[in-house]
Write a structure and sequence with these properties.
2 copies of one chain form a homodimer. By secondary structure, chain A is of the alpha+beta class. Chain A has a single domain, classed as Mth169, Chain: A. In chain A, 35% of the residues lie in helices and 37% in strands. Chain A has 2 helices and 3 strands; from the N terminus they run βαβαβ. Chains A and B meet through helix 1, strand 2 and helix 2 of A and helix 1, strand 2 and helix 2 of B.
Chain lengths: 81, 81
């Protein structure tokens, strides 16, 4: 089973890296971009010893306790077969 | 319209950052993890001047030409309303 955790800055937090990428893309001639924001993602492969419910709980716990800084970041967890 | 680009190392490329996270999580007592890999993701907001097909083409071009290093990375693009 695989789990994916997506971590990005909260909407209220400035994302200078995203802004820089957006500026660079605009200068390079790419069109139609209103905003670019950058985040991280984690692909977690589980060893099969947990049920789906347990796995989801464990990954959500990891996402909130370790992978995300709750002051400035938010996260999203998704589970896959 | 929003587009998401997910960039990660190719399966054949070692991911020391992911390995470090996996080791740390194991030491912290989290169970059931077989592998952790880390990647980046980009959330691109489009300004509405492009049709869905044009937007998909433009974002795919950006993903392959700018956001991904094709030697060691692979990318996945998804489009949203």
């Amino acid at each position: 089973m695989k789990a994916y955790v997506y971590v990005s800055f909260k909407k209220s937090v400035l994302d200078p890296q995203g802004k820089t990428i957006q500026g660079a893309l605009k200068k390079m001639g790419y069109k139609g971009l209103a905003e670019v924001r950058q985040g991280k993602y984690f692909e977690i492969t589980l060893d099969g010893g947990l049920t789906r419910t347990e796995a989801e709980a464990e990954v959500t716990r990891i996402a909130h306790e370790v992978l995300t800084n709750p002051v400035i970041e938010e996260c999203r967890v998704s589970l896959d077969e």
